[in-house]
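Aim 2 progress. For DUF2326 domain-containing protein, the working sequence is reproduced below.
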Amino acid sequence: MLTEIRSDVFKNKTIKFHEGLNVVLGDSVATNSIGKSTLLMLVDFSFGGESFIKNDGGAVENLGHHSYFIIHEFGKEKYIFKRGTFKPDLIYICSNDYEEQEAITLDYFKVFLKAQYKLETIELSFRAIISLFSRIWGRENLEVKKPLHDHPSNNGEECIEKIIKLFERYTTIRELSQQLKDKNTEKQVLSGAFRQKFIPKITKTQYRKNLKEIDRIQREIEEIKSNLAKYAINLSEIASKEFLELKEQKDLLLDGKTSITSRLSRVRNNLNKNNHIKSTHFAGLKKFFPDVNEEKIAEIEEFHCNITKILKSELKASERELQKDLELITDEIKKIDERINKTLSKIDNPEIIVDRVYNLSNSHKETVIENNYFETEENIKLSINDMKSDLKSEKEKILKFIEDLINDKIKSLVTFIYSKNHKSPELTLNDKNYQYKTIDNTGTGTAYSNLLLLDIAIFELTKLPILIHDSLLYKNIANDAVSHFIDLYLKQDKQSFIAIDEIEKYGQKTKETLEEKKVIKLTNQDVLYVKDWREKKSPNTYEPSRRQ
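Predicted structure tokens for this construct:
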């Protein structure tokens, strides 16, 4: 835990902390810009935060770059670190005499803290665990309608994932997500192979045709096996079967060739035509129509010429494509003719039986491969859909559990702070977003009270190691309620850090508790730093942006 922050720029030089509640006290008139929020920023800074560097209340501008010694204790071990404003990503491990010994990175420092707090089972970085619950003026996590947003740029899905991880319920989701990711990778690899034509891709219609073809081939092979002696005597029967199959294929190709030849002929006829108006015809038009607009006709002729050029370009491209198709289909017809001649030449040759079985086997193999790849693709699609459904269902169950857990805890906290009949805010979680609201009461005090309730509920339910709450959160909450909130902080051994002022109004008992738990008291005279750079202003003007 954090036990000490010391610096030469502090007026008191050293600020010591303890387990449980740590209070930064303001004065009885709520004087601003005396360092309350800045000290909370430094607490966050001591846990690897970076908000102090971006929003230091003018410390660097007025004090120059400076350093802080940060002491953490875990068990009986004391660890002293030094972190400065000039290079805040560089941290020094120090001796008990505060001498620099070894430099480490900020990332290493945060990993060290996560390990010391025994948070390895939470699948979040150390800062991702604690940052949301460091609610200090100047940070961007004070939006009461979006209490799970650490920053306005976060989306709802990110917030949901973080809360699942914080409650250590992410293992199953991670495993299912990885399985889904792996299956999607399989799909992408297969799709790429189809696209590059490394493996054949067929449609469902072709798949059904292939099933019939596989059945036909298998029956014919079985028939040849069963009647081998008969076929050895009557070879022409096998030849006839193969001849008929080849003839059917050739007829289909000839039909295709006729169609392509006809289309090619039409394209070539269109290329040979030239129907636009010739300028030589203008004189004849002028003779019969003296008032004709020759310039307008010339424009039309030019337009027609341009259209003709475009059409000719497209027609030539079409001609090349059709010619290519014609050559391919002619080549296929030639190959089939060769196979027909070969088949007919073997009518009296027993080798035809071997060739027939060989060809059937090859066709069977190719068709089976096509269908296997089709089935593989279909099975992957089904698996992906099932995995998505399983993941969605598991996530919904986990979110419902966390939602019930938090809302039940909030209800008990509300009963403790207000009464049994007081309405509780409710958190609703889904896989993409969340809502947190109270029915019938939308006042500022209620909004901040709800924020505190949510934080304390999660603080009690999880391994969240620290909680930081700034004084602005208490400003509009009823005094009795604030007193009860203080009692809730006291119930925890884990460290909480709060800034609060005007403590007399919370009653004698709470006043005594806050004074007992204070780590420093800041007033108009006793500010945080050795230098006071405030402008002269009314002590009751709340301007946190000008704080020290």
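The mean pLDDT is 86. This observation will guide construct design in the next reporting period.
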